[in-house]
Amino acid sequence: MLLKKSISLMALALVAGVLAGCIREDRSDCPCDVFLDFVYTGDGDTDIFPDKIDRVNMYIYRASDKSLAGELVLDSPVLDREQGTHLSLSPGDYRIVCWGNVMENTQVETSYDEARVAEPVMFRGTEQFTGTDPLYFSELEISVPESLQDVHATCKFESAHIDMYVHLKGFRGAFGPDAAPDARISFSHSGCPAYTDFFNNPSDGQRCDVFPELMEDPEDEESYILVYNVLRFSEQDENRLVITDPSDGSEIYSLSVPRFLANHGLGVDGIQEAVVPVRIILGPYGIQTVEWNIEDVKPGFD
Fold first, then answer.
1. CATH code at 193?
2. 63 in a domain, yes or no?
3. Which of 187, 209, 249, 289 has the smallest count of CB within 10 Å of its CB?
4. How many CB atoms lie within 10 A of CB 247?
């Protein structure tokens, strides 16, 4: 009994000490509990966050001077236990920016007025772009009251990328010196946004050419498969798929992506899980472009 009473008195003393430090006119140094939930519904009403996002990088900015108040990384094991996070923030206004799936192919620059997200090669400027991670974005403004009442809010995510599925049928070994079986064509996706900002606005002026990995189709020895992600472009932004002959660098074929979308009744604007599925077929009478049924994509390529 005496032990329990002593513990209770110690707990009361601790609480009293904490309150004594925060019961004053200026509470700017007093922490407040902020509870955030993460949600992503894609193009429907059901939360699919666990299916799409394996990691969250969070950046917390003070609204008063746009300075970085803190940042944290929540990896898959943490998100599996709790789809959200708990912060302790002093009273004030904040803007919270989250990026989902910042992995090895994405770099984040956090200086508020110049904050950007891009492939690491954009900041180095020495290598080719190969396609970004499947990125997702969330922004949230919150006010932490001086009353120190708990704050509960939801970070609603949106897509920051477009999935590209390209099947090059008949191109494997068809070009290059003596059309050798190991002669690989060059493929690029030109006119893609080089970066996106901390409002999920892709760059207008700075564009790049993406050179994704050219994978051999395991079920068709004459074909290639390319599965990659690019930062979001609109249906009006001109960007092209370009196939080049490796022997002399000449252009074999070029496809306008906006024109392809329009011709096949496809779209990306206003679609969260936007997909561009293209099959380019090299036949005896030329090159034909059709929509690729991406259900044909083999396991291991998604």
1. 2.60.40.2630
2. yes
3. 249
4. 14
